[in-house]
Amino acid sequence: MRNNNEFKQRMSLVKAVIPGLQLEAVKKLVENQIDIFTEIIWKNPEKIIWTNMVMPLEIFYAAGLVPINMELVAGWLATLGLSKKYIMLSESMGFSPTLCSYHKAVLGVCENGDLPFPRAAAITSHLCDGGNGVVNHFVHRYDTCSYTLNIPYHNNGLHFSYVLQQYRELIKWLEDYTGSKLSNEKLSRALELSNRAREYWVKVLQLRRGVPLINGHLALRNLFGATFLFGTEIGVEVAKAYHQQLCDSKAAESKTDSNRSTKRILWIHFAPLYANQLMEYLEEQLNCRIVFDITGYIYWPEYELEKPLESLTQRTLSHFYMGDAQERKNLYSSLIKDFRIDGVIHFMHNGCRAIPGWSWQVRQVAEEGNIPFLEISGDCVDPRGFSEEQMRLRLEAFNEALRRDEFVFRS
Amino acid sequence: MFLGVDVGSISTDAVLIDSQKNILSYYIVKSGFDHKAAVDKVLKGVCEGAGIKSKNIIKMVGTGYGRRNVSGIYKSVTEISCHAMGIHTIFPTVRTLIDIGGQDSKVIRISEEGFVETFVMNDKCAAGTGRFLEVMANAMDVGVEMLGEYSSRATKAVKISSTCTIFAESEVISRISQGDTEEQIIAGVHNAIADRIVAMVNSIGLKKDLALTGGVAKNEGIKAALEKKFGKILVPEEPQITGALGAAIYALNYKES
Lengths: 411, 257
Known about the structure:
Chain A: Its cofactor is [4Fe-4S] cluster. Chain A: GO terms for molecular function: hydro-lyase activity; iron-sulfur cluster binding. Chain A: The chain crosses the membrane at residues 59-83. Chain A: Keywords: Iron, Iron-sulfur, Membrane, Metal-binding, Transmembrane, Transmembrane helix. The structure holds two protein chains of two kinds. Chain A is of the alpha/beta class. Chain A has one domain (8-406). Chain A contains 16 helices and eight strands. Chain A has helices at residues 6-13, 24-43, 58-62, 70-79, 83-92, 101-111, 130-142, 157-178, 184-207, 216-222, 233-251, 278-285, 308-317, 325-338, 359-368, 388-402; strands at 48-51, 66-69, 120-124, 145-149, 263-268, 288-293, 343-349, 373-378. In chain A, strands 2-1-3-4 form a four-stranded parallel sheet, sandwiched between helices. A four-stranded parallel sheet of chain A has the order 6-5-7-8, with helices on both faces. In chain A, α6 (101-111) runs parallel beside α7 (130-142), α9 runs parallel beside α11 (233-251) and α14 crosses α15. Chain B has helices at 35-50, 79-90, 130-140, 147-152, 165-178, 182-204, 220-230, 242-253; strands at 2-7, 11-17, 23-30, 59-63, 75-76, 96-100, 105-110, 116-121, 210-213. In chain B, α2 (79-90) packs across α8 and α3 packs parallel to α5 (165-178). Chain B folds into two domains: 1-91 and 237-257, 2-Layer Sandwich (Nucleotidyltransferase, domain 5), CATH 3.30.420.40; 93-235, ATPase, nucleotide binding domain (Nucleotidyltransferase, domain 5, 2-Layer Sandwich), CATH 3.30.420.40. In chain B, a hairpin with a 5-residue loop joins β7 (105-110) and β8. Chain A binds chain B through residues 363, 366-367, 372-375, 377, 385, 387, 389-390, 393-394, 396-397, 400-401, 404, 406-411, and chain B through 19, 21, 65, 77-78, 80-81, 111, 113, 115-121, 123-124, 204, 250, 252-255.
């Protein structure tokens, strides 16, 4: 390991800010992440498996591996003020400026030796086209063992069988990599833990339909990684702590924000993760509270423990960014209704081909519901093009559109 | 009387209205570096124009990117909302507005009451803005106010990139060296801006009537290039003061807080 490893150094310093974090769930999550990135990944790099954003991770936990999500790594690099350095390094290696910054940040931090090179990687092909490219680079650069689940776009019987067979192959691949048979009991236990965490999460989403109990950007920015722990004891603890804190806040509801002028926002996609005050400005200054963000949506049904691989297949194929467009529109409509949404903000992350490509559907749904819709173009990880004033202007105009009722007319 | 002040990147505009929304006077100055001085100038000019003293102004709303530099304002409102309200006051049937200012361009969908339904803006790039035109005019040593007249004489338009102001400037210079006429190049520049605007309009969908405002709306070549794409476009008599007029309407209509 290099002596001047900035990532590890800064990650260690995060310990000092944990007591000041507002959400108990985030405290637990961050402690876990510090442990992984400053200790576990260095001591047992062969126990680490790199993966991507929509891969169910229970199977890796059952295999005794520690999954590292590449988007989460990039998020940390942005939060710690390091993403620019690693993105520029990967661009100097020849990766295009138009590629997703999440992936370039990951390529850079590995190239710089600030994380051990990946020994193993297993990803899914759906939603994110860049992940496959990153893993291909790992294979060529570091001789990484890799497996990719090839996921069809539509969920039907044929595709179900196709993905199920790949899960069986993935288990064989994992057994070859680890040198030990994957225990059915451990897989069942991981799925059970995942179900328990999921249950808390579903209850959290139910609570968030009411009066805003937290600033939603705290969940959007900090709890994205929590679902990656589903399948572990710590995953249950994080979800339970999140649920408990919201229950406590609800019990003290009279002291919380029940202001009628609060506007309720549905946020689509992620948000800038490097240092900025944009989200605080939206929620605290403009009083537009993010009551739901799509990244925290539990789209999959509870796992059937007696059918583990079928359950994982079902989850993989049921992602809402796949399949019929009308179903996606129906989902947005129901979220708008259930969470009593006043306005929708769609963050258009540079370099992402999948999610911004669906923004027209969100716009249509917002129009049909006669609620304001805002698209903001920017980058979640690369701070170089960020203009806070430009983004604030857009948020302010959106806020004004939400508050038409504050005007009287004399004509 | 109610005042709206729009502090833009190039000009600072003020509009004074009465309680019946009649425009009593307006005044336009260059913004320069000292926004406070520009605001003082327009305030003086607009008061002199209406024959009133500034103390007679009941309420003032600031807008534009320098809106927070306007002292004595009741509220600041974004230029997006103000342009929507301003054009609604002039042309109540307008549902889509294209505003091309010095440093940004925006397309705004407007409700029947003059509120913003949705909008898109150019993204941190000068292509498709007034600055783009200034750079091209400088490259050809043609006054920016003459661009419309030049393009009206063009028998054809050359292809100019709409991607980047700097690259487009290089293209213009190479076109000059290739012997293309100023008229053809300027018509191409106008088409490049129109291409940018068309993409923005299409992204939110066109609802008619359609209007064009901002300093660039005074350029007949831009209007003509856009009308080729969209059909008839309404342009106010003084398109530069739309934002300030909207701000004045907000000053008139804002509820007491």
